[in-house]
Amino acid sequence: MSIDDTELRDRLAAAAAKAGAPGFTSAIVAARVRRRRARLLAGIAGAVLAVAAVATAVPLTLAGGGPPMALSMPPVLPPLPGFAVTVSGNGMLRSAANQPSSATNRASQPTFLVAPGERATITVVMTVPQRRTITELWLGITGDVIGGPDTLRPALVHVRAPLRSGAHRFTAAWTVPATLRPGTSRGLTVIVGESLGQLSATIAQFAPAATTVRPTLGRPVPAAIAGRLRAMMLATARAKGDARPQWILAVTATAAEAQRALGDPGGPAPTGNLVYLVYVKGHRFTLGGPPVLPGEPTGQYLLFAIDAATLQDLSVALGTRPPDVPLASFGPVSVLYGAVSLGPDPAGASLREACAAEPTQGDFRRKG
Amino acid sequence: MESWRLTLEELVRERGMALKRYAFMLCGDDGQADDLVQDALVRAFGRPLRAPRTGAAEGYLRVIMVNLFIDGTRRRTRWHRAMPLLAGTGATPDPAERVAERDSVLAALRVLPPRERACLVLRYYADLPVTEIAAALGTAEGTVRRYLSDATAKMGAQLAAAEGATGAEGEARR
Question: Is the reported ipTM for this assembly greater than 0.90?
């Protein structure tokens, strides 16, 4: 049975008239509105502070199974104080760049070669600029992830006292894990607390020597290294979206050549002077790996600069076309994986051109 | 005084009763209607950069109330399923529910599912066209027409049944 529209309207109006007077006042509602606004604003302010703190240095791993790779973003809050790191130990330790490091530039972070199981004495000198006061400081060892103090494993130093402008020296001992494998590393991370919040950054790296075999320019990649590089690159290719790349090539090059090839002048410097340029051809890669996000650049070619001493990634570039300059121009090319004819080099074409293309053109993306 | 506060005061002063009635038709309960209007006002004015302007505030509030009502009904349905397990059988019924049950229109409205009820109130009480109801509920116009058709049919049947029962009681008393 249906009901006439007019009758329904009348009856609904009559029923609505039975509602009592409002049991609230504008003052009550206004008070609730104020509380809600305050909560929202507090939430926004907290989020901004958190993002600012995290944005000062976010380590991004290149691959799940591959070596870690860090990308630091410009700080939003005042930059970290300056740090100088020195390490001494049982003779196996040496500093590649024993100079003040910038927390936001991985290129200037010193990498220290360490031996698994070794006892290392780490000295850090922090220089606090004028008119700044650090209220709390942690120093510790981190893996791929850095964040709050609970990510320090272990925390080596914790100071909870005002540290005013000037130099402050901290010394701590750390036993390098016996399980630290070549191609992996640990970071020396500092977390400083100021009135605005906390900032954290990795100021040095510890990496085990990859091998006693020393690479030589103008010679193929040593066989002892080739197998490890192949395993690393296959794992990295899988993490970046292609478990079965078509081929992987490698060549020994100098740091300057690698930086030019990757269009990354001033990029991270290797521990020694040599790097392996590794070139991977696949079907579809992204720098972040799957799932592919909307608008995320993809490509068929990956080019890595790998520190020859530690086998750590220094830089990586993603491209949609092969480079123009043959890899052979850097030295004899080693085929790490896949069946490749090295006649007209598939790795041909200009590395420089491919890697130097503007990221906004959607062709090559670099991360280093 | 802040501009949002002025708008809020004006709205509560001038349209408070209308909003309350509208909420009452949606939820069929006086106390819940008060809560619904307040929640909608807090939701509308609680965003620092998106507080409604004077002219548009009432329509905006009606949309918020409908959505809060439908969402709240879903939550209450879940709660009502669990409540007997928690409260046992000795729970006292809400007196407001008894009041609503005495009114045949409100009782008939209570039978309708929340979306059908919202469509009916928006169309025949708030006099909104189907297109605006569809926009408010985030659904297609055809769906709204179907809800309205079902709701009026159910309302007619409920009211006829209620009035038949009342007539039979009166004759029995005589």
Answer: no
